Amino acid sequence: MSVAVSLRHRQGAFVLDIAFESRDLGVTALFGPSGAGKTSVVHAIAGLLRPTEGRIAIDGRVLLDTRAGIDLPAEERRVGLVFQDARLFPHMSVDDNLRFGWRRAQNRMDEPSIARIVEMLGLGPLLARRPAKLSGGEKSRVALGRALIASPQLLLLDEPLSALDAARKAEILPYLERLRDEASVPVFYVSHAVDEVLRLADRVVLLGDGRVTSEGSVFDFAAGEIGEILPASGAVIDTRLESHRDDGLSMLSFGGGVLAVPRLAGLLGARLRVRIRAEDILLAREEPRAISANNVLAARISSLKPFGAEQVDVHLACGEARLVARITRASVARLQLRAGEAVFAVVKSVILDPRALRGTNTLG
Amino acid sequence: MTTLSEAEIEALLLSLRVSSVAVLVALPFALAAALLMARRTFPGKILLDAVLHAPLVLPPVAVGYLLLVVFGTRAGLGGWLYETFGIRFVFSWTGAVLASAILTFPFQMRAIRIALEAMDPGLGEAARTLGARRFDRFWNVTLPLVLPGLVAGAITAFAASLGEFGAIITFVSNIPGQTRTLPLAIYTALQMPGGEAAAARLATLSILLALVFMALAGLAQRRARAYYA
Known about the structure:
The complex is a heterodimer. Chain A is an alpha+beta fold. Chain A contains 10 helices and 20 strands. In chain A, helix 7 (166-182) links the parallel strand 8 and strand 9. In chain A, 44% of the residues are buried. By secondary structure, chain B is mainly alpha-helical. Chain B contains 10 helices and no strands. In chain B, helix 5 packs antiparallel against helix 8 (166-172), helix 6 runs antiparallel to helix 7 and helix 7 runs antiparallel to helix 10 (196-228). The radius of gyration of chain B is 20 Å and the shape is globular. The termini of chain B are far apart. The mean pLDDT of chain B is 90.
């Protein structure tokens, strides 16, 4: 599954000049400040904005090629778009909204798949209601379901959480995480919120001033290694729930070791993304034995980057995972830390959202 | 006072027929004009807007006179229609329909336009990304959403049409059973000695009809608001 986008568009004084490619399923975050051109990019991909020049193809299916004179209308692109403001049809029930695109699709999704999406998004109790009777969070979920049930080849989410308050956001994020893990459609997620990107994205394309300033994995993004815009915020690690121990801990495995966390309610095998803040990692030269922290990981220093005047971000490779420890310049000197050397990372705390425990089934 | 004479019932039925047909005839034009004015920008839009609203402010007698000039059997267009298709407006109830349709067209156009402008333009974009083409979007998204406005506009136009006098009497005269609608019947009654009672009956009837239909238009609007809000 590959999506290739290259666009040039002039809108008054603003020039958009963007090219990026996404090769896998999963969530690609288009991240950048307001005015970076994010919405223009998704509208151009959806066919709602005609760029001055450009080419857009999904798995070789050309949606737009201004040189070849190809410009599929939005209604033929099979690109789902979830707008900031949901845009549900007010004269239709939730069920009719959900089936609007489905009724017009060439290859209609089968009923069991629809039922799974309805279940995944918790829409069952809402089906007979009209949009006017839904909360903001419910509207977002219906809009998401409506786009998915139309079986798009690419799903664009244009800041779907920006119109919601913090409580509603927290309510929707787990659904988006399930979407990422269960839907077999690539997702472009437009956002200017670091937190959402860290929780949802697999890859990040940084946009600034109408250009792609940098791109990379969410792990690079968390480690502050792309963009140079944001300082490292820590580590993002995708783990698997391995076992529940009798001592009240659950074990999460990842390609660099095992993390012990307070007992989780999830099924074994479930996938779980955890975050470790740079401030929550201590470094030791020798393996500490008598210590209260549950997690001590063997790691290798990949680089050291100054953070402000007094601190240093020590980037670590821990198997496949990357961690960042923010320690003082003095500590770096005292421990004589240099790139390439082995250290032990003492993890003080792991951030995880218990509701983020995800199943392992896959949507067709 | 309580029972209507045969001639009065005839006038009432003719009024209802002329007004319903006038509303139906004007509706497609009102819808097209509303779509044009609500969705497009073009040079001369303000001028066209004035022309489309003119029936509201022109003296109806002047409109009737203009219709006579254009559609009279000896006039250019009217003569051609009569000779080619046998269509004659003057002295016919169809002429009353034409006059009423033109004069009440702005009521329908305005109501539909307001409903169109109140509609979230983003819904059309959402429908496009879900595979709905132009006519599909019009039929399944735009039309249902402007329907309450359209119905309210049609009812208002119908009620206004029941009161049309000047244009009808000027264009198609005052012929019992053909062009003598309720207002013309009131006028006729007043011209006759001892016709005051008939005039009062018919005037009361006209007022009642107007009030009932305006209430219906209001009800349609309110139901729609409760439904979509």
